[in-house]
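Consider the tokenized backbone below.
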């Protein structure tokens, strides 16, 4: 991909984007933007003008009039402004109002038709475009959106990690699944990765720790929603923070060095990493051995004509692991994921032995 750097990201880490979830009134937008600008810690303003709502009959944004208010906010604060765009009409309106940064929201990234429409509308411009991750955990869609924009000549790109929809209960509104964002960072090291803790958390309480976690993983920026009076916000009221609270959150963040210059520290880390590599090799070897044993069991089951899944045996394994994992300092969440993965692989191996269903190794 032909990617150019964005000046602001060359100068500062983290780059902070803030502003209300939605522009609601001229007063609300200006009061929020001028207060957060006063903190001296915000680099770019944001506001939703057209709001993609999960259910109809919710506030769907003020529309283009909000772009006028945003222009005023830009004049008053001297800060660049950003908005979400979801179709070609939004693009032309935003360009008309000289919006500095456009972003594609999660609900749009999932739809290649919409992304292509936006990419076509942006062709020939030098727009700066950030792409939020799709609502579900599919990095291909995220990559696809970046590629479509890039094919239209957009080279100033950014990624925004805002978490993923998860079935079941969670402390987060959207599960971070950090490993997916890290993988995107690895694949596109030249494209800055921002974290949107507001949409990950869905509440104010977790914002500080999620923001810190993102910085510790080397994210280049943060997008945090703020509102002069979150209690009366027309969208996302539980996760928006007052300008004062935003200031506190940003003040408390610790920005650690990206790479260590200290030779000794590097040596120490390398030594520890080597140990991890050896352990990882051993873990894979042992898992391979475990699967061979599962295959032997499969052969016996085949001979005796019994089913692959023996529920009581599996429950016994889970019970044992539940006590053992505490001994080894492993979380319950990890243990369950690990056991499920091992169980599935065992079943696949036994399936190969019993039914000649070839295991897919690639
Ligand atoms: C937003 O930033 O206000 C928004 C709608 O976010 P997302 O696309 O992440 O849901
Ligand atoms: Mn929002």
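A designed sequence for it:
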């Amino acid at each position: 991909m032909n990617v150019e750097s964005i000046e602001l990201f060359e100068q500062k880490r983290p780059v902070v984007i803030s502003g209300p979830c939605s522009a609601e009134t001229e007063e609300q937008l200006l009061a929020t933007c001028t207060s957060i600008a006063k903190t001296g810690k915000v680099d770019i303003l944001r506001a939703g003008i057209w709001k993609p709502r999960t259910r109809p009959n919710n506030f769907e944004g003020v529309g283009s009039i909000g772009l006028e208010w945003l222009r005023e906010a830009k004049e008053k604060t001297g800060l660049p402004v950003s908005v979400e765009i979801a179709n070609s009409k939004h693009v032309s309106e935003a360009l008309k109002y000289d919006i500095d940064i456009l972003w594609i929201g999660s609900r749009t990234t999932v739809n290649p038709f919409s992304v292509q429409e936006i990419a076509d509308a942006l062709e020939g411009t030098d727009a700066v475009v950030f792409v939020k991750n799709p609502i579900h955990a599919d990095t291909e869609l995220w990559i696809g959106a970046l590629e479509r924009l890039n094919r239209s000549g957009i080279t100033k790109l950014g990624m925004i990690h805002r978490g993923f929809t998860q079935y079941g209960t969670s402390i987060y509104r959207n599960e971070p699944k950090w490993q997916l964002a890290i993988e995107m960072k690895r694949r596109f090291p030249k494209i800055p990765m921002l974290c949107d803790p507001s949409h990950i958390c869905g509440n104010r309480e977790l914002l500080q720790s999620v923001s810190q976690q993102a910085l510790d993983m080397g994210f280049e920026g943060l997008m945090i929603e703020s509102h002069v009076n979150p209690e009366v916000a027309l969208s996302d009221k539980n996760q928006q923070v007052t300008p004062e609270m935003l200031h506190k959150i940003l003040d408390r963040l610790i920005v650690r060095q990206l790479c260590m210059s200290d030779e000794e520290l590097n040596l120490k880390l390398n030594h520890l990493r080597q140990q991890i590599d050896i352990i990882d090799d051993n873990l894979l070897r042992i898992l391979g051995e475990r699967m061979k044993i599962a295959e032997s069991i499969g052969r016996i089951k085949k001979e005796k004509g019994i089913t692959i899944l023996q529920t009581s045996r599996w429950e016994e394994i889970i019970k044992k692991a539940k006590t053992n994992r505490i001994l080894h300092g492993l979380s319950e969440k990890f243990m369950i994921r690990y056991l499920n993965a091992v169980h599935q692989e065992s079943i696949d191996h036994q399936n190969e032995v019993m039914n000649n269903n070839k295991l897919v190794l690639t």
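Residues 110 and 134 are 5 Å apart (CA to CA).
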